[in-house]
User: Fold this.
Amino acid sequence: MTKPPDQPKPSSHLALQVQNLSPAYFGMVMATGIVALAAYQVGLNSLAWGFTTIAVLTYLVLWSLTFLRVYRHPRLFFGDMIDHLRGPGFFTMVAASGIVGSQFVVMAQAISFGFAFWFLALFLWIILTYTIFTAFTVKEEKPTLDKGISGAWLLAVVATQSIAVLAALLAAHTAQPYRLDLNFLALSMWLWGGMLYIWMMSLIFYRYTFFKFAPGDLSPPYWINMGAMAISTLAGSLLIENAANAWFLHSIDPFMKGFTIFYWATGTWWIPMLVILGIWRHAYKRFPLAYDPLYWGAVFPLGMYAVATHRMATAMRFDFLEPLSTAFSYIAMVAWLITFIAFLRTLGRSGQSS
Assistant:
C-alpha cells in the first residue's frame, strides 16, 4: 500500500521528529519562560537570563520545526488541529508567545518586542480559537466525553489569559489613549478566560468523578487545572495595579480583587489534589515515570503559581504570601531542571538508536 504523498517514510531521526512533533511542545517555552520570571523575582538575575536564552532559542527552533511539518506533513498537522485530544495543544503557541513577550517587557523593558509578541499571540489566538472550536462543533464523528477531554483543553484559558497579562504589562508603559484601549482589552480577555475556565472545568470535573479513571488518563496536562487559575490570578493582579490609570478599572476595583483572590484560592486548592492523584498514579498504580513532552505542562503551573502569588501579594499588600511565592519559585526551578535532564537523556537515546 502506497503512503500519501505528504507522509513520506522518514529517512532520518530529524524527519521522524518533525513528522511526529507534538503541537503541545511549545509548553517547553511556556515552562522555561515562566521559570525565568520566577527566578528574576527572587533576585537570581543571571539564572533568569539563562532561562530566557533557552526559552527564546527553543521558541525559534520549534517554529522552524512547525513550519517544516506544515510543509512536509500538512495532513498530519491540520489533522492534529481538529483532534479533540491533540488540538488544544496548539494553544501553547499562543501562550508561549505571550510569555516570551512578557519576559521582554518585565526583564528588559523592551516594549517594542513586547508589542510584536503580543500582536503575534493575538493573531494566533483568533485563528486557533475559531478554527479548533468550530471544527470540534461541526465534525461528524466525535469521541465520548471520557475519551475526548483532558486538562489540555484548559490551555485555551491559559492562551487567553496570556494575552490579558501581556496587554496589561504593555498598558503600564503606553501613553493615553492607547493605555485605556489595552487595559480594556486586557479586562475583556481576563473575564472571557474566567468564563471559559468555568465551562471547561465543569466538563473536566464531571469526567473526573463520573467516568472510570485509569492511571494513563491522568496525563501531566491535568496540572493546567491549577495553571489556568494561576495565570488568571496574575492577569487580575496586573489589572488591579493598572486601576489608577483607567477609570473603568478603578470603578470595579473591589470586583477585580474579589475574583483575583477567588482564582488564587481555586488554584491553591488544586495543588494538594494533583499531588495526591500523582502519588496514586505512580506509587499506588505503579504507572511508569518516563519523559513525555507533556510534562512541560506540569512545570509551567508551578512557575506561574509562584509569579502570580508574588504579583497578587504586591498588588494587594498580602506580604504574608511572599514566602509561599519564594518557595514555589525554587520548586519550579527544580521541576524544570529534572524535566530538562529527562528531555536531554531521551534526546540522546533516540539519537543513538536512529
Q: What stands out?
A: Residues 178-210 form the longest helix (33 residues). The chain has a mean pLDDT of 89. Residues 90 and 327 are 31 Å apart (CA to CA). The two ends are 25 Å apart (CA to CA).
